[in-house]
Amino acid sequence: MRRKLVVGNWKMHGDLTSNQLLLERIINGVRELNNADYVVCVPNPYLFQARELLKNTNIAWGGQNVDQHEEGAFTGAVAPHMLTDLGCTYVLLGHSERRSLFHETNLTASARFEAAIKAGLTPILCVGETLAEHNAGLTEVVVASQMDAVMATLNEQEFALAKQLNMVFAYEPLWAVGTGKAAASEHVQTIHKFIRDRIAKRNTQAAAQVRILYGGSLKAKNAKDLFAMPDVDGGLIGGASLLANEFVEICRAAN
Ligand code: PEP
User: From the CB of 177, is ligand 1 less than 6 Å away?
Assistant: First the structure.
């Protein structure tokens, strides 16, 4: 039985004062919810604050992206060891906003995935199709190409490391992210099963173990239905992760 995982993606929101309030409310809200795992991915400047507030709690923290290089002249970039230095255990990779607004590709996602696992970070690889691709019936083609671009570059040793770190996949259809229109639970289940089956082609044990999150307008009101699907192992939450009550209710639904 896979333990559910709820990940908040704060995107570019927050400040020292509002973060403290939000984190204190979440800490209090999930303290007794011991049957699932929780992570908040905060903007890089606030990782230090997250570490101070979350270090003795049941909530982990992570980055929203990472660079593939270890160090060097890469202005504005953050290396994997910088995230681990600040206690991060997770990192989002290939988020649709990184792909669409910052021109990141399957190639960068793949290089960053490798760099992240080598630093000991658990990668959360985001995959998902646009509305046009969805309407054209291309969801599985797109998801497969995004997954394969990363999986194919991992040699056996790297794949074993990713498995050991409990790599995570997040299915995030772009037409559902930030739109208020979540995908139907049955559609989500179909794609999650597709993702798991594709991992099974490489390693059945990894496929059984890997957690596949759904992201895209997941709120307290639809969390229970989505989490009831057999291949939905939790959620990646954007907007609703900025509202303590909503986020805590989603965490409760995962228990
Ligand atoms: C996201 O940004 O990963 C996301 C799922 O956003 P939202 O929950 O706001 O749709």
Answer: yes
